Amino acid sequence: MKADHYDSFAESYSTENESGLFNAYYERPAMIDLAGDVDGHRVLDAGCGSGPLFAALRAKGAIVTGIDASPAMIKLARQRLGENADLHVADLSQPLPFPDAAFDDVVVSLVLHYLQDWRAPLTELRRVLKPGGRLLLSVNHPTVYKVFYPDADYFAVTQFVEEYTFNDGQSMELTYWHRPLHAMTDAFTEAGFRVWVISEPPFSPDTPRRLLEPQFADRTAFLCFIFFVLEAS
Ligand SMILES: C[S@@+](CC[C@H](N)C(=O)[O-])C[C@H]1O[C@@H](n2cnc3c(N)ncnc32)[C@H](O)[C@@H]1O
């Protein structure tokens, strides 16, 4: 997948992200909860999209910088966050335009599963974090791949393509990389991180019932994404 792939459906994605189950009532609240007190923290939101998490962390007192490989997503983020927001078009697979130890925390929501190689991005994220800083990230839960593709080899790092149609009717294809859990944690360790937390959080208690499939009615959680909090050692 080209790094700026989101350009072709930026508006549709951003609108759905605002109020949809997976972003608004599951991923984002869980990430904000994991981040905890960020007042005064210098935070990099890597793959910030149109900036909803940037906005939430800034509202909690963080000094936030956002990067995204899609110029269209950065344009939407600027509309949301204002002309003075610190936003840059940058590809996580390339060297980042920041000095060493520039950030206390890095958040990477739902981005790394688009990348085949995690070594270079994780090494760069480690570099821009101060020692002892935190990398908080979420990706597709690896077991979900096995549920949808029961004949697939869970243990192989594998590319797969999914089609999605937004509520406004626009369709698009996304190319993901499945990797097993141990490949994720090995990559973290090799890049100089220690795993602090592995989280499979509940969805938000204020999720509108209409957004939940009937089978979730009596439950508080479903398998979808997996979250990590890592320490830069
Ligand atoms: C699923 S969206 C998540 C957006 C945002 N983090 C959120 O949770 O609302 C994935 C984002 O990652 C960006 N992205 C994909 N590959 C990237 C890369 N190599 N470098 C930087 N951003 C990338 C896309 O442009 C898109 O905005």
Describe this entry's structure for a reader.
By secondary structure, this protein is an alpha/beta fold. It has one domain (5-115, 127-232): 3-Layer(aba) Sandwich (Rossmann fold). It has helices at residues 10-19, 21-35, 52-59, 71-81, 119-128, 142-148, 181-190; strands at 42-46, 63-68, 86-89, 103-109, 129-140, 158-165, 171-178, 193-199, 225-232. It has a seven-stranded mixed sheet with strand order 3-2-1-4-5-9-8, sandwiched between helices. A two-stranded antiparallel ribbon has the order 6-7. A hairpin with a 5-residue loop joins strand 6 (158-165) and strand 7 (171-178). Helix 1 (10-19) packs across helix 2 (21-35). The chain is globular and about 45 Å long. The model has no long low-confidence stretch (mean pLDDT 96). Bound molecules: S-adenosylmethionine. S-adenosylmethionine is lined by residues 3, 6, 17, 23, 27, 47-49, 52-53, 68-70, 73, 91-93, 109-111, 114-115.
